[in-house]
Write a structure and sequence with these properties.
The protein has 13 helices and 9 strands. The chain is an alpha/beta fold. The chain has a 5-stranded parallel β-sheet with strand order 2-3-6-1-7. The protein has a two-stranded antiparallel ribbon with strand order 4-5. Strands 8-9 form a two-stranded parallel ribbon.
């Protein structure tokens, strides 16, 4: 069972140059001041948990517990047990109890089993949970933040996600844009990440103007976390103080598809991927598409 963790990130740690990211962070700051649930969606990336931390730390509960749980890592039985059940005595408490008066972050909420969905809906509407499978109720006071890489509205239409629960958790929505929707942020984010990893690994590097232009032209399929991971990769692998465009070109295709103009040959020729790229695409297939609600 999870324990409260230290939520360290704040909004001043997030940098944005383009209006779309600036507006999203501004909306998140505003949402932090309220107690309503927040739904954060993202295209494959991992910035959802970082944004959840910022919202918690900017809110009224920032001195209280902050608890995260990845629902995709739990079986349906474990979801019920960890989220709601109190075994009694000196046994482990439920996550709702641990997060009492604080924030509970439900990562991959799209993976929540139907039985747990009903219990979550009840907990959010009545502010109580049932203890240990009994009819005994326990009052809880928790702010809920949910994250997803899926289109929850599509799941509602498919009958695998409860409509009233969707309405409840999506009262305040934040959709992190794919990096290719705001390429103007890439240069400043890249320099920030390279500086962070330079400090971490005692290895400071820069990227040549040509290499930077190549990165800006790329068709990034995830959010800024994808760029961060790539910056860590080139920091570790390069042997030069300045990373060249050739080095960027050699390594980007191993992970990400380059943007190019489609041709008839592209349509007729099977696409061949490296092992790294095939594994990444398989992971992307499992995590789902970017959230485009009501779209």
């Amino acid at each position: 069972c999870a324990s409260p963790i230290a939520a360290l990130l704040a909004f001043h740690h997030l940098h944005a140059v383009t209006p779309c990211l600036q507006e999203l962070y501004e909306d998140a700051r505003q949402y932090a001041q309220y107690e309503l649930p927040v739904l954060i969606s993202s295209p494959y990336g991992g910035m959802t948990s970082q944004l959840a931390e910022c919202i918690h730390n900017a809110g009224l509960r920032n001195k209280n517990p902050y608890v995260e749980v990845n629902l995709a890592a739990l079986s349906p039985e474990m979801q019920l047990t960890q989220l709601f059940s109190d075994a009694g005595g000196d046994q482990r408490k439920s996550l709702f109890e641990i997060a009492h008066t604080g924030t509970l972050v439900l990562e991959a909420v799209d993976r929540l089993d139907m039985a747990a969905q009903y219990q979550l809906l009840n907990a959010m509407q009545r502010n109580v949970i049932y203890q240990g499978g009994t009819h005994r109720t326990l009052p809880v006071d928790v702010r809920i933040i949910c994250t997803t890489n899926e289109d929850l509205y599509s799941l509602v239409r498919q009958g695998t996600f409860l409509p009233p629960l969707y309405a409840c958790i999506s009262q305040m929505e934040l959709t992190l844009p794919a990096l290719n929707e705001h390429p103007g942020d890439i240069p400043s984010l890249m320099r920030e990440y390279l500086n962070q990893f330079g400090t971490k690994y005692h290895k400071f590097v820069t990227v040549s103007p040509e290499g930077e232009a190549l990165m800006c032209q790329h068709q990034w399929t995830g959010d800024v976390m994808q760029l961060r991971l790539f910056c860590e990769k080139i920091t570790l692998l390069t042997r030069e103080r300045e990373v060249s465009a050739d080095f960027i070109r050699r390594h980007l295709p191993r992970t990400f598809a380059l943007r190019h103009t489609p041709t008839q040959m592209d349509a007729d020729t099977p696409m061949v991927y490296s092992r790294e790229k095939a594994e990444l695409l398989e992971t992307f297939d499992k995590t789902g598409a970017a959230l485009k609600l009501m779209g």
